[in-house]
Amino acid sequence: MTDYTAVDRIIKSYETTKTPLIYILKDVQKAYGYLSEDILTRIAKKVDIPLSEIYGVATFYSLFTTKPKGKHIVRCCNNAPCYVKDSKEVLAQIKSYLGIETGETTPDGLFTLEFTSCLGLCAVAPVMMIDSEVYGNLTPEKAIAILKDYKVKGSSNA
Amino acid sequence: MHRIHILVAMDAHTISQGARSVKDALVKEVALAGLADDVRVVETGSLGIYDKGVVLVIFPDAVYYVGVKMEDVSEIIAEHLLKGRIVERLHYLDIPSAEGEVGEKSARIGKQERVVLRNAGVIDPESIEEYIAHDGYEALGKALTEMTPEAVMEEVKKSGMQGRGGAFFPTGLKWSFAAKEKSDEKYIICNADEGEPGTFKDRLILEGDPHAVIEGMILAGFAVGAHQGYVYIRGEYHMSIARVKRAIEQARAHGLLGKGIFGTPFSFDLEIREGAGAYICGEETALIESIEGKRGEPRNKPPFPPSVGLWGKPTIVNNVETLANVPQILRKGAEWYKGIGTAKSPGTKVFTMVGNINNPGLIEVPMGITLREIIYDIGHGIPNGKGFKLAQLGGTTGGILTSEHLDLPLSVESLREIGAGMGSGALLVVDDSQCVVGLVKNFVEFFVHESCGICTLCREGNGRLLEILDRLTSGHGTARDLELMEELANTMTKGAFCGLGQAAPIPIIGCLRYFREEFEQHLEKKCKTGRCTFEAADTAAA
Question: Of B196, B276, B445, which has the smallest distance from its Cβ to A61's Cβ?
């Protein structure tokens, strides 16, 4: 049984905000990690918006997820400014290092690999973002070294 | 009183290279050296130097250091601050300029003219006092106490400024539509959902001079009779959100937002709304839907937002760069503004130079500059001895320019003539080692990812284009594929529901026009750049 205390508290905190659904989803995702069916159903009931509509919003925006994800989300950019600086090679090496494809999570639950659209860091392309940290001027070697750092930190915390 | 100021560029680029820890080390070591009373370490926005690691400048000497690492900090303090000797190995001479104050030798300066970016890298963006000391909120004071809303609008109209979001619609005219509407509520929205690949001007304006945008929004509100504004910032721009949030709080504390601004009856307040990751939300009606808590799908137009916008009320949606221009126009006058740029495209334009270019980054130049000046003078040309192949201006939906356009003066009207546009001001430079078919495929992959799916032509059209391009890059293309691609692209420009779907095929049409031969070579499994490996794809397809 899911504990909805946080959901209810978050909804209450936006009582005075006009049309706050996106903020609610953002905060709830932060609290629970992802937007499960149970949680979306609870939100629908509380804010009086049909579940179908809320599900539509939750699946429209790339920062929302309806499935559980890894501890760290690695977002790689492959838009044109990164592409002409060989981001494809960086991405290929990251995939082979993590052993997963874009959209997947490593078996240890440490990393989820995703695409991101342009992060506006094109002067230091190619770039990636891990959680909310950004990394630029990547080479395949540099990207792997950064991921290794996260791995070491991840296992020492565990 | 501090004798020396060290400004550390703290923007997303430099932070990604470790600027935060260098700044902390500076503060610590300045104190250890007993210089805390003489030297102040300040965070500032971008200093206009990009791929050079951590950047800082020491005033009053105006000495720029780049590529500064933690271990360099003690040397800078011992040599520069204590002994007055420049640390040559970190010294950077090709410096950008803020209103011609520093570094007159640089090629960048001769061509740059800073209006929007006048404060970026000069003031501490987290200090409203510094903004005010640089004539900030002066235009607002003048407007509220000496001018009528009509006069403010008239001045913006007279300046001829066109919206910097990409469509270049006259800003004053847009405002007048909302001003005419009778409504109990009206809204001003700042579109900071910058997502056009290669564009980061809005981010650097928000991070370097957030108060200029806030002042522009209050002025817009006064002109059209709105009392509430929203800054819609994309969710990925963490630092912009933090800086604007802080600036709003400061403005409120100084009585520049809220009730009775400058002791007048005029009230205006601001709120931030964060995006949640959707390129389409840069389209103004999709953005409005998103603020309303819905899927960011564009609306039918007309009615346009100045008549029916946010929550059904008259709404002005202006780009960050547009709004940052407004205080300057009111402070210095429409005539001054018209004196910059070309007759039909007044003012400056902020461009971001990205891709295969030696000196990538952000520049502000008068309209009418040529592509050659940007790429070769300001951008220092193309790296690794490679040649210029093409440039794409205005982001991934932008038109294609080739070597025949190098001397074309870049203005809204000249670009329109060749079927291109200035768009967001992103200039992607592509060298001759890149395969044009692969590049077009990359563009289309982006649109497949970002199409909101509401209309068939954009959703299915981009999907089918990608299939064709997959065939071409894997050696399975036929002559019919090229015809089909052209036909589909042309249909999309005419029939797609919104600007995204209509503009998506523009670079495809441009590439087919200028590089048709290269597409045709792919039909014979030839890629002169060697980037398309037809054999590998054959096995994958088998």
Answer: B276
